[in-house]
Amino acid sequence: MDKKLLINLFDELFPIMRSISGPGIEESMNIFKNHMPGMKIHKTPSKTKVFDWEVPLEWHFNRGKLIGPNGELVCDSKISNLHVLNYSIPVDKKLTLKELDKHLYSLPNLPDAIPYVTSYYKKNWGFCLSHNKRKSLKSGIYHAKIDSKFIDGGVPFAELTLKGESKKEILLSSYLCHPSLANNELSGPLVLLGLFMKIKNWKKRRFSYKFLLNPETIGSICFLHKYKDEVKDKIIGGLVLTCLGGPSQSLNYKMSRNSNSIINKVISSQNDNFLTKIHQHPFTATGGSDERQFCSPGFNLPIGQISRTTYANYEGYHNSMDNKDFLNFDNLIQSIEVIEQILKYAEVCGYPVNQSPFGEVQLGKRGLYPNINSSENMSSSNDEVKDGRVSLNRRLIILNMADGKNSLIDIAKQCNCSIDDLIPTIEFLESKGLIKYNTEIKRL
């Protein structure tokens, strides 16, 4: 993975004032579109009813400033996007410090940090500043000016599909709406881009892969609303990517609500094979990200969430301490590599189907079984592993268990070996047309 590309993209994206709608998020999506050919950007119109939600008006923001009694600049969105309450209504008024105070936000426990605060669904305005700065404010008249407006626009989401042998899809999703946050915002989309670059170069894709960028919560709800008649049949697994660039040396996986998820099974069975230890957590409806929408009872999609330095568990969460200095680009790249490995296992850990299931397959006529049956002649010249006896036994076990109901994980247990040990045999039998994967199964 090109580390320089990721750093340059970060530097381009970090200063953009983003929100759940408006020019900033659309500009950011178009930057990703330049690196992900074929990406389409959809927009759900404002005031559209999407399940229990209503799409808000589109926010257009120019600048926000708070000027002190002596003309000093207290807050300025040109200095930090976080200085302005996200989705603030326009304001141009003079107030006493007492009147202003209810519109100020700071973090007493982190006195040097600027908090990230939003008010998407209730009209409000405000400024965010460090607590030390707030404590230093003197009595007097302050001028609050926020240049913003709301229009009938919509909430965007961007999607792209890399087609595979099957129309069944694995969904890879991340959110793109927070301004000027590193781990909690840009790490997920950058990992999404890295995975796209990896997966598009795979020689073989059994599944199709859908890549989704959206504003958190409302964006995934708009996506589900648009494709509500398709997602249950099409999506057989997936991951929400978030907080993947922090300093933690291990990954965290929040299992999908659907316990039969192929990703759940892969991580549960192959944890020790990954570059970094993955800690598994059961699905909970509180906390987290868009997996809450994908796993809601009406959809119950088999989509988990993967993170590294997890939301709400580090000091910089939702404040100005979550910056480029906090982001570890080497860990970001390692996250891409580990998740790619998980997906490669998901590709082969599905449900193989014997293509000649009535009686044993005649291996001899295909050169896969010794024509002279003796203990000295058990290996084939074109064998996929050196030990002919082991290979033949694995072939027979795979063909016998390949009924479309046993996953490769189940078969590996029967063979008393690892998935990695079976992959050459699986690919060999596939190349001979003896098995196919049951990728059309409704839910793996």
Word description of this protein:
- The chain has helices at residues 3-13, 23-35, 97-101, 131-135, 182-199, 218-226, 231-234, 262-270, 291-294, 329-348, 388-401, 408-415, 419-431, and strands at residues 40-45, 49-50, 53-54, 58-67, 73-76, 91-96, 104-105, 127-128, 141-151, 154-162, 169-175, 208-214, 235-241, 251-254, 278-281, 303-307, 352-354, 435-437.
- By secondary structure, the protein is α/β, with parallel strands linked by helices.
- Strands 1-10-12-11-13-16-14-15 form an 8-stranded mixed sheet, with helices on both faces. Strands 5-4-9-6 form a 4-stranded antiparallel sheet. A two-stranded antiparallel ribbon has the order 2-3.
- A hairpin with a 5-residue loop joins strand 4 (58-67) and strand 5 (73-76).
- Helix 1 packs across helix 5 (182-199), helix 5 (182-199) crosses helix 10 (329-348) and helix 11 packs across helix 13 (419-431).
- The relative contact order is 0.12.
- Mean pLDDT is 92; it is low at 376-387.
Care to give the gist of this entry?
This protein has helices spanning 3-13, 23-35, 97-101, 131-135, 182-199, 218-226, 231-234, 262-270, 291-294, 329-348, 388-401, 408-415, 419-431; strands spanning 40-45, 49-50, 53-54, 58-67, 73-76, 91-96, 104-105, 127-128, 141-151, 154-162, 169-175, 208-214, 235-241, 251-254, 278-281, 303-307, 352-354, 435-437.
